[in-house]
Amino acid sequence: MRSQSILAIFGVTAILVAVAGCGDSGDSGASGGGGSDGGGGESAGLTKAQFVKQANEACSEERETLLEQTGAYFKKNEKKSLPEARLMANLFRDVYVPAVESELTKIRELEPPASDRAEVEAMLDAEEAAIAKVRELKKAESPEEFGQFFAQPDKQLRAYGLDQCAKSG
Fold first, then answer.
1. pLDDT band of 106, cuts 50, 70, 90
2. Taking CA atoms, which of 3, 102, 134, 140 is between 20 and 30 Å from 126?
3. Do the Cβ atoms of 14 and 67 come closer than 8 Å?
4. Do residues 12 and 143 lie in contact, with contact meaning Cβ atoms separated by under 8 Å?
């Protein structure tokens, strides 16, 4: 019952961490197209390949702490007699959402290629909109309820090459 759900959540967390550690973020299908950032480069930004690599690395670093944070969350809340759905909703709001927000902050600190800025902004804005929807939920019956909000932003992230930043598989 409750222990099975907790184990399932640990499993989901482990999958997220494993996915974040998989793949070669340097080989993300990015072409590097938009010219090089020779010196001042404020308007040129990173090449697409550089941006994708650095953003994927930022997301991977953030995901590495999720398993530990999930364990700490359950330890902190084990004595509370919350319904499972409420426990899961709180876990996503208190642990997963802050991790995603941290990923977004790190990505926004990077300077995407000038030709891709609007596309990158749209992706990150979609991710923030998904976060806002998750924060509005009071309870959930399953992790899939949260995943639905990230489905479209995840497609955009993957299409751009940010596989490590997507939430679902």
1. very high
2. 140
3. yes
4. yes
Amino acid at site 36: S
* In the predicted structure, residue 156 carries a pLDDT above the cut 90: yes
Lookup: tokens for 69 = 């944070």
Closest alpha carbon to 100 in 70, 139, 58: 58
Contacts of 136 (CB under 8 A, 6+ apart): none
CB 157 within 8 Å of CB 166: yes
- The two tokens of residue 135 are 């924060």
What pLDDT band is residue 125 in, cutting at 50, 70 and 90? very high
String of DSSP letters for 91-134:
HIIIIIHHHHHHHHHHHHHS---GGGHHHHHHHHHHHHHHHHHH
Overall pTM surpassing 0.85 (yes/no): no
**What 3-state class would DSSP assign to 40?**
coil
